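Please, structure for the following, as tokens.
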Amino acid sequence: MDLLLTIVVSTTLGISFIPVILTILKTDKDNRRIFRPLFYVFLSVNSIWYSVLFIQLLQANQALNIHSHIALEIFTSSLLFITRFLFLIAFVRLILLLLDFDIPKTFKLALKLSGFVIAGFWLLGWLAFFFLKSGALSDNLLLYTDILIFFIVIVSCVYLIYQTKLVPENKSGKAIRMLAFVLLIPMLLGLLKWLVGGILMLENPVWERLSIHLLVLLMNLLFSLWLIKYGKELKGFRILKTHLNNTDELFEKYNISKREMEVIQLICEGYTNQQIADKLFISIETVKDHNSRIFLKTEVKNRTQLARLFLR
């Protein structure tokens, strides 16, 4: 029965790949810059759950000797960590691309350090298994990794939705906002499932597997519907980037200086005062002075009103 359920679920999830693959193949080279990382996110999040299904099939074999059991534990823990880490890399790269942020050197360094840390976790997990005959350390590390994924995805999607509010209403902004919801909804439901399961102490393996399959299937279906809805608009699909409109007219009207123009551009791109100071190599007090003068000249009260003024 478990094998039949696994086959049915795997086939259903596999079918959900078809719209994604067809859309990628039909897009031109320019649009593939966006849809390639989208596909990597889609593929990596599915690889997490497919790896779980694969591991369950392996562990169902009870005729394993002690050496085979140790090898299986090492293989499964490594596979679970790798798939989660690849998803985080793919997702962060996608968010940076949509927000039109260059990948900073510090981020690349953080990825390398994270790789060393995860390798250390694997080593500790293996040592704990060999000497303590316990997989509790690996299980706890996987739990913390899942919590990290929930946190990064939810915060990034909320921030992405907020950024789309700052650009003029167009097909690109709407498509990206809906994509954020596609990624956000299953994660929120997964977090709710995890919290409810922890509070009520639910430990039903069948329900656990089924709920995970349903969440992945939901994400695949939402992703496919998103592609069907916005795939026809790929010709004009652009990365979410703020472009100031009617700049010459507005700058002349409000007597905006060149430095104030740079500050306005960064404000419209969602930079904080500290980030603007770092970007322009000025102090944060100078940034605040520029903000005050800009607000006074344009007669706006906050950053949102300023962005709407220059992006409409």
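The chain has two domains: 2-236, 247-311. Residues 66-98 form the longest helix (33 residues).
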